[in-house]
Amino acid sequence: MPKAVVLISGGLDSTTCLALARHDGFDVVGLTFAYGQRHTCELTCACEIAKSAGLAKHIVIEIPRDVFAGSALVGDGEVPKPGTVDAIGDEIPTTYVPARNTLFLSYALAVAESVAAQDIYIGINALDYSGYPDCRPEFLEAFETMANLATKAAVEGQRLRIHAPLLQLTKAQIIQRGIELGVDYGATHSCYDPIAGFACGACDSCVLRSKGFEDAAVPDPTRYAPE
C-alpha cells in the first residue's frame, strides 16, 4: 500500500479526512500537533482516533506555545462567541493562529519525504469556515508548488501531492460523507473554548459543527456544556 501523511487534529474535518485517505487505499502515517492550544482535549481525541483506526505510526509534534503568540486559541485573549453561523463576521477572527497550516504542512512534508510518501492529506475547508487565509485553495496550490521545488524526492521525480478533499464541501456534506465511511463523530472534538471537557456551543467551530449536523439531518453527538 502506498503511504500518505494525514494531519489529525481530533476534530470533525480531520477525522473525515483520515477516513477518506484510508478509503483511497493509503497506509496512513498520522501527524498531530501540540502547540499550547487551549482546547487540549482535542489532542486526547486525536490519539484515540489514531489508535481506533489502527495506525501503525502516529507522530505527535510539540511546538512551543510562544511560536503562536497572539492567537486566542493559545490563550491570548477571549475566544469569539458569535452563537450562530449568521453572526460570524467577515473579518479574520482572533482565533487565527499565525502561519499554522504553513508550519504544519512543512512538518508533514518532512515526514512524507522521510517515510517515502508522496501524498499528504489535510482537512481544511474553504466554505463553512472562519475565514482563515491558510484554508484557501490558492494557499494549498502555492505550498504544493513550493514542496515540489524544495525536496530531494520531487527533484528526482517523486512529486508530492497535497490532498484537501473537504476543501469545497459544506459541513453537512462532510458529515454525510463521513457517515458513509463509518466515522464516529462522537469521538471527535471541535470546540475552541471547552468548559470542563464539554463544548461551549457558541464559538465559531461549535456553531458551524452544530449547523452541519442539523443540515445533514444527522443526530449531533457533541457533548455541550450545561446552560
Largest pleated sheet: 5 strands, parallel
Query: Could you name the CATH topology?
Result: Rossmann fold
Strand content: 5-15%
**Number of spatially distinct domains:** 1
Shape: globular
What name goes with the CATH superfamily? HUPs
Strand order within the widest beta sheet? 3-2-1-4-5
Q: How many H/I helices? A: 7
The helix content, as a percent range, equals: 25-40%
Unreliably modeled segments: none
End-to-end C-alpha gap = 48 Å
User: Which structural category do the helix and sheet elements fall into?
Assistant: alpha/beta
Mean pLDDT: 94
CATH top level label: Alpha Beta
What is the number of E strands? 5
CATH architecture: 3-Layer(aba) Sandwich
SSE pattern: EHEHEHEHHEHH
What does this entry look like structurally?
Helices cover 35% and strands 11% of the residues. It has 227 residues and is of the alpha/beta class. It has a single domain (3-216), classed as 3-Layer(aba) Sandwich (Rossmann fold), CATH 3.40.50.620. Strands 3-2-1-4-5 form a five-stranded parallel β-sheet, sandwiched between helices. Helix 1 packs across helix 6 and helix 6 (171-180) crosses helix 7 (204-216). The radius of gyration is 17 Å and the shape is globular. The termini are far apart. The mean pLDDT is 94.
